Amino acid sequence: MASVPEVNGPTVDPGVAEPVGSQSLAGTGPASRHGLFGRLMRAGVTSVGATILSHGTYVALLAAAHANATIASTISFLVGASFNYFVGRRITWGRKHRPHPIKETLPYLAVIAASGTLSIVVATVVQHVIGPMGLSDLRRTAVLELANICSYGVVFIFKFTLLDRLVFRHHEDHTPR
């Protein structure tokens, strides 16, 4: 359905009870239209996309480029985190405005740095443990990828909670951004 402009006011979508892109009260804005469960599901979908990109990069760097697991994990994490930030902030939390560098971007980077550090530490530790085993490239890649996937599963809940409650929380003001 097309948006209909109001005279002297914001653009309104007839199917939505509030102005499109407005900052709204907690629990009533576009990002929270379906509540916590809706945001969790949308975060899950965007994380799947980020995970496909990240793990595709990781496996390619490990298998094709024979990269060190720490370097491969770092590069692939940055690829996925970039996708997740730009797509996730729009789809999951309904953010359409330019991000505020102090209130949004820096806290996001802190959350991502913490979760990325965990993933990189896991890859590094697992590589250290399996190094003396003399695994073939295929087995080395499979073991490192399995460890990476496991760490991402744990990190998802930690990251979603921090992003939802701290970074993209809904303020109780109507100031457009």
Automatic annotation (TrEMBL):
Transmembrane portions of the chain: 43-63, 69-87, 108-130, 142-162
Region (Disordered): 1-28
Membrane-related topology note: Multi-pass membrane protein
One Pfam family in the UniProt entry: GtrA_DPMS_TM
Domain GtrA/DPMS transmembrane: 47-168
Major location (coarse): membrane
UniProt key word Repeat: no
Entry keyword set: Membrane, Transmembrane, Transmembrane helix
A GO cellular-component term linked to this record: plasma membrane
Swiss-Prot/TrEMBL GO biological process terms: polysaccharide biosynthetic process
Localization: Membrane
Family per record: Belongs to the GtrA family.
Protein name, entry field: GtrA family protein
Species this chain originates from: Microlunatus elymi
